[in-house]
Design goal:
- The structure holds 2 protein chains of 2 kinds.
- By secondary structure, chain A is mainly alpha-helical.
- Chain A contains 6 helices and no strands.
- In chain A, helix 1 (2-22) crosses helix 2 (28-43) and helix 1 crosses helix 3.
- The longest helix of chain A has 34 residues, at 83-116.
- Chain B folds into 2 domains: 2-76, no CATH class; 82-238, no CATH class.
- The chains are: A mainly alpha, B mainly alpha.
- At the A-B interface, helix 1, helix 2, helix 3, helix 4 and helix 6 of A face helix 2, helix 3, helix 4, helix 5 and helix 6 of B.
Chain lengths: 119, 239
């Protein structure tokens, strides 16, 4: 558990360093993700402790958004003055994004399955 | 009794312990309510926790900075949690590889739709430039979105709020929209929810179905990467 947590933090730290040094437009934790994935792929087997720790953190992912969400109180004035634009844009964009993503996914999946002769 | 409670309040409200505990307690209560409601997407645990905490903070006259001094310990875990997505990505790599083509196509279509539609609609409705730039990365998980927002001249803390509102909205509307479109396969359903509603959608997807959750987690990770490249590029073109 502690070892796995250390590995996650090390990957994040290396990712942050890499992002700063290279000037890539990608946040540090994302480069950390790529780094950990490469490490796992190179090693082949997944250490049990890492799997458990990662799954524990990801299972409670929604908790981690609460502190930032409470920040809505800081931006209350802006959200109030632009509420219609923000509300309509967020809702319509969410519906559009879900619909476009799912339809394209399903359409390409069927098309490529058909190409392989699968049912 | 009252003066002593007042002293205790002055002491406690200045330590991180109080608001860290309040954050966890609010979430535990909200999650209990969500379970009791049969995991109804409208009783989203993040939405309920945030509403309860904001009410308590406003009622007790506590500012956000004081609250965040305690809650930052939870917030900090977003970074390691992002790195941890590498684990389900690696574990499910076989399924992922089988669906590489549909995923690549859906990722491209979805990440462009997410950023372009929200900016386009908000612009048409007269949103300010700062709000537009803060809105652009709203479908991406918070730590990545805040980094993108900072880079293109948005307000990172506003982006965090918009990201969470997007996550809650996406988790609420996913089921009716996908059912209406007749999308039944879990990979497609999960991928769409994760791409649109990042971690909050992924948490919701994992509660409904494991395969959906895995694909949601992958979509969240991939969309984080894709948007981190795409949005700064779009912003540079528009500027």
């Amino acid at each position: 558990m502690i070892g796995a947590l250390t590995l996650l933090l090390l990957c994040q730290l290396a990712g942050e360093l890499l992002a700063r040094l290279s000037g890539l437009p990608v946040p540090g934790p994302v480069l950390g993700l790529v780094l950990l994935f490469v490490l796992c792929a190179a090693r082949g087997a997944m250490p049990e402790a890492l799997r458990e720790t990662a799954q524990t953190i990801l299972r409670h992912l929604s908790l981690l958004f609460v502190p930032a969400g409470v920040g809505v109180m800081v931006h209350a004035a802006r959200i109030e003055s632009e509420w219609l634009a923000i509300a309509v844009a967020l809702l319509a964009s969410a519906v559009l994004t879900i619909a476009v993503t799912a339809v394209v996914f399903q359409w390409v999946a069927r098309w490529s399955d058909a190409g392989k002769g699968a049912p | 009794m009252m003066p002593r409670f007042g002293d205790a309040w002055v002491y406690l409200s200045a330590t991180p312990l109080l608001w860290l505990t309040a954050t966890l307690a609010a979430y535990v209560a909200a999650f209990w309510l969500y379970q009791r409601a049969g995991q109804n997407p409208l009783v989203n645990p993040v939405a309920v926790s945030v509403a309860v905490l904001v009410a308590v903070l406003v009622a007790s006259g506590t500012d956000y900075q004081t609250y965040f001094d305690g809650a930052q310990f939870v917030h900090f875990l977003l970074g390691p949690a992002t790195v941890a997505i590498a684990v389900p990505l690696h574990l499910n790599f076989a399924v992922v590889r089988r669906n590489l083509l549909p995923m690549a196509a859906a990722l491209l279509a979805g990440s462009i739709t997410a950023a372009a539609s929200v900016v386009g609609i908000a612009y048409a409705l007269g949103a300010s430039k700062e709000t537009l730039l803060s809105l652009a990365p709203k479908s991406v998980t918070a730590p990545i979105a805040m980094g993108i927002s900072e880079q293109i001249g948005g307000v990172p803390s506003l982006t965090a709020v918009l990201v969470i509102l997007t996550g809650i909205t996406g988790a609420m509307i996913a089921k009716p929209v996908l059912n209406l479109l007749g999308i039944r396969e879990w990979p497609a359903r999960g991928f769409a929810v994760g791409l649109t509603a990042h971690g909050i959608g992924t948490a919701r997807a994992f509660q409904v179905n494991d395969v959906a959750g895995t694909f949601a987690g992958i979509a969240m990770g991939l969309n984080g990467l894709a948007t981190a490249f795409l949005v700064p590029l779009l912003a540079a073109l528009l500027a």
